[in-house]
Write a structure and sequence with these properties.
- The structure is a single chain.
- The protein is about 40% helix and about 10% strand.
- With about 150 residues, the protein is mainly alpha-helical.
- It folds into two domains: about 80 residues, Winged helix-like DNA-binding domain superfamily/Winged helix DNA-binding domain (Arc Repressor Mutant, subunit A); about 50 residues, no CATH class.
- Strand 1 and strand 2 form a beta hairpin.
- The longest helix is centred in the middle third of the chain and has 15 residues.
- The chain is globular, with a radius of gyration of 18 Å.
- The two termini are about 30 Å apart.
Length: about 150
């Protein structure tokens, strides 16, 4: 078996992030957690993922501090998975992936789920990256300053 490369010591924030939530199952689990899914069986039924894979991904997300395991909200003997503050901070990532997918993988009239503001039921505007002065910036307006090699 090939040993998995780890990026937990990388100087790049993207590499470290991908190390903890970079596979599709993990991102879909986080997406479902934002939608209110909390129990193993609910994740398994909704995603159609094999139980061993789901178990491994949930364990990793808990280990990385993205999810917590808590007693069931109904007082039963089951446990539930809830997003931590670190996990909730992934909301803009999930929204960005959703909006990117809407723009590039659906036809104009093709049906799809929609993320709307709970207060007024209107779709969210497209996310944008802003400079410190408020300007919208894109890839040509930014540069990565590499960390010094020690």
């Amino acid at each position: 078996m090939v040993k998995r490369t780890t990026f937990d010591e990388a100087s790049c924030p993207v590499a470290r992030s991908v190390d903890s939530i970079g596979d599709w199952w993990s991102l879909l689990i986080v997406r479902d957690a934002f939608d209110g899914v909390r129990r193993f069986g609910e994740f398994q039924r909704g995603l159609g993922v094999a139980k061993n894979i789901l178990s491994a991904r949930l364990r990793a997300l808990v280990g990385h501090g993205v999810l917590d395991v808590v007693p069931a909200s109904d007082g039963s003997s089951y446990s539930e998975y809830v997003l931590t503050a670190k996990g909730r901070d992934l909301f803009p990532v999930i929204v960005a992936l959703r909006q990117w997918g809407e723009a590039h993988f659906f036809g104009a009239d093709e049906p799809r789920s929609a993320l709307v503001d709970r207060a007024d039921q209107r779709p969210l505007p497209a996310l944008a990256v802003h400079a410190a002065d408020g300007r919208v910036v894109g890839p040509d307006d930014t540069v990565v300053v590499k960390a010094p090699i020690s």
